[in-house]
Amino acid sequence: MKIIIAPDSFKGSLSALEVCENIEKGIRVVFDNAEIVRVPMADGGEGTVQSLVDATGGKLINLKVKDPLMRNIDAFYGILGDGNTAVIEMAAASGITLLLKEERNPMQTTTYGTGQIIKHALDMGCRNFIIGIGGSATNDGGAGMLHALGVKLLDKNGYEIGFGGGNLDKLQTIDLAEIDSRIKLCNIVAACDVDNPLCGEKGASNIFGPQKGADENMIITLDKNLSHYANMVEKYLGIRIVDYPGAGAAGGLGGGLLAFLNAKLQPGINIVIETTELEDKIKDADLVITGEGMIDYQTQYGKTPYGVAKLAQKYNIPVIAIAGGIGRDAEELYSKGFDSIFSIVDKPMTLEDAIENSALLLQKTAERIMRVIKLNI
After folding, report:
1. How far apart are the first and last CA of the chain?
2. DSSP readout, 176-221?
3. Cα-to-chain-centroid distance, residue 217
4. Distance (Å, rounded) from C-alpha 166 to C-alpha 212?
């Protein structure tokens, strides 16, 4: 029997690799000789760096960068097992969780730290990049990132515009003379799971601005500023990003990556499936086990278990999902590639207890699943 274990992390509890390890322990209680292939997964958001480093035998790189308010912080990225591919979560440098609620202000926050990470990876010899662009605190169109990479965004007097979305209206000249020349040699893919344009009613400012601290007046200003920024990008680069699907991701970072770094925007789960070579591993499997902390109807909208299940469905392989909890309308997933869904919670317990004991609970759940399967062999 060949079993593929391909879960996401259980947020706040176990990494995807640790989930794999504990599910395997439970399986081996019943099927000690099973062929088990562990494939730590992610969907492009939090945990993607760790999952892909674990899946490819890569390494984590720690470094100091600037946070969204230009303060020094510790950040990280990964270099995959090929030694040439950097995987970056922009949230590690420019994420909303780095700020207190009262500090959130997209008029001021910047993606400069994300640019610093990219530059460090270039210095380490990386020429392939996977950049997860979820969880941002910013609305600057990637302007801060570009500053860190040598692009000069100048006002009418020839001075650098300030950081943050509140300064984009000052942009009059884009000078690419000193952009890091190594970028031309790179293949860059951005994990982007939204199709919002840069500007307008469904744009970055209107849809995501409020959660980043923007009030109604700020949203109007930010949207107008991004529109001006897009006009300048089109004028100097000949690339239209104002209404490009996904350009509004991460406060317009999607548009900045697209225009200046020639990045491709792709769904995160598709990038991870390709990078881990999951399809090759799954083709001849007898069973696929996936999972994440919470499974509900939203799982079908680009989450890791759904991507794994759809791939398994292509080869008519049964899929079992294991979750910390099963939420609203999870039954919808049974028509979308899932054969059964199990919760690790086996008695009344607090969330804290479930998190603390998640490793053992995963093992026991996997064992129970295998004992049922054994009845039919």
Report:
1. 10
2. -TTS-GGGGG-EEEEE------SSSTTSHHHHHTGGGT--HHHHHH
3. 30
4. 13
| 228: nearest Cα among 172, 150, 159 | 172
pLDDT at 321: 98
Sign of CA dihedral 203, 209, 215, 219: negative
The token duo for 131 is 């950049």
CA distance 219 to 206: 6
**Residue pair 144/138 in contact by the 8 Å Cβ criterion:** yes
What's the CA gap between 331 and 113, in Å, rounded? 41
Q: What is the pLDDT of residues 267-279, one digit of tens each?
A: 999 999 999 999 9
- Residue 5 makes CB contacts below 8 A (sequence gap 6+) with 19, 20, 23, 24, 27, 36, 37, 38, 39, 289, 290
Third-level CATH fold of 2-40+286-375: Rossmann fold (3.40.50)
pTM of the model: 0.91
- For the domain made up of 48-268, the CATH class stated in words is alpha beta
| Token code pair at residue 206 | 């209107």
Domains of the chain, by residue range, sit at 2-40+286-375, 48-268
Q: How many residues are given for the chain?
A: 377
Dist. CA 303–CA 167, nearest whole Å:
35
Rounded Cα–Cα distance for residues 198 and 42 (Å): 26
